[in-house]
């Protein structure tokens, strides 16, 4: 599986510019003949949470239309990062996943709201998992702060996903934790982790990128810098079978003790 990570400088509160930027990034990534393109968190608006009424994508329609059209045009799956969406008068931090045919195969609302960036005041939390196939391989997705909750990722990883896609707006100041948390999620779940962060800044935070691809042993196999860029990597998914076969961590679990 060849993946492209679109590390973008999201423009605060400017959906038109961000839709333009995402279109360009997907077109550029598709030139690399990848199977999946992954976007960062809240790429339509950034964390302009006080302006959601004016800026959020109503029912995710604009996002789904664009990503579906690009997926079909370039014959590529898209893990659509996340966007601010309005549904029935509530606001969500929502990941849309499209297959190569442009069909919506998963719609996930961030489960853990990040209070330090105001999500607890403006965003409604999701409560459903996010497992989907990419070309027949089981995969899953999480959004930023979700990675601090290993039990949430584990509950889903125990169902078989070989790749964990993560979309984030993770501030520079905590990047050392970003790296360690993602490596730990890869090791404990014996899965690839493909994690996209943004770069640039908003009125409250700087974002230093460092998007990562990590193998099931926790080794970093691709890494972005701190500027906008597309990073590509090849995942040898047979490695997941091999690592899980050599140490049966999932079979050895004692979930009856963990409540
Ligand atoms: N957008 C987020 O969820 C940020 C999470 C974060 O920065 C963290 O340290 O956790």
Automatic annotation (TrEMBL):
It comes from the Bacteria. GO terms for molecular function: hydrolase activity. The keyword Hydrolase applies. Residues 1-237 form the CN hydrolase domain. InterPro entries: C-N_Hydrolase (IPR003010), C-N_Hydrolase_sf (IPR036526). It holds the Pfam family CN_hydrolase. This is Carbon-nitrogen family hydrolase.
